[in-house]
Amino acid sequence: MSGLTMTQKAEWVLDQARKKAGHAFQISTISKMTSISRPMIYKYMDDPTLLSERSAEQLAYYYDELHKSVAGQMLQVAIAKQRFKDTQARLVNMIKDAKDETQLDSYSEKVTEVLIMLLQKKDSELLHVLIEYLGDDEAE
């Protein structure tokens, strides 16, 4: 998963717990996920040289799982952002094409221009509302 040794991964997890770096690093969470007792985790935090091979292995596995989870979430975010941009471009182009092929009165033309402007905005709130209204399964 990374270039770190099992011990380095375990020490990284303990260091994050020491820093109280979030829910994933609360002693109770680490204990639950690794089956290492909370008193032992505190002991390892105070002196990492006391880490048994089994505990180092469990903490390293926890490290790997955390990093897989984060990488997976980052990939999902990247995919969602790209899907948003693709949808945004297709929708704007479709409306522009329809506008060019349709005779509109001046009011309808202005409304269409505002609609296009709102959809073209970076991180368009209007498009977010439309996607949310349709639901995730419809966005694909």
Number of helices: 6
Radius of gyration: 25 Å
Percentage beta strand: under 5%
Helical proportion, percent range: over 70%
Count of individual beta strands: 0
Distance between the termini: 31 Å
* Class from secondary-structure proportions: mainly alpha
Would you mind describing this structure in some detail?
With 140 residues, this protein is mainly alpha-helical. 74% of the residues lie in helices and 0% in strands. The protein contains 6 helices and no strands. α1 crosses α4 and α4 packs antiparallel against α5. The chain is rod-shaped and about 80 Å long. The two termini are 31 Å apart.
Quick rundown:
By secondary structure, this protein is mainly α. The protein has helices at residues 6-18, 27-34, 38-46, 53-101, 106-120, 125-134.
List the helices and strands and how they pair.
Elements: H1 6-18, H2 27-34, H3 38-46, H4 53-101, H5 106-120, H6 125-134
Helix pairs in contact: 1-4, 4-5
What distinguishing features does this structure have?
140 residues; 6 helices
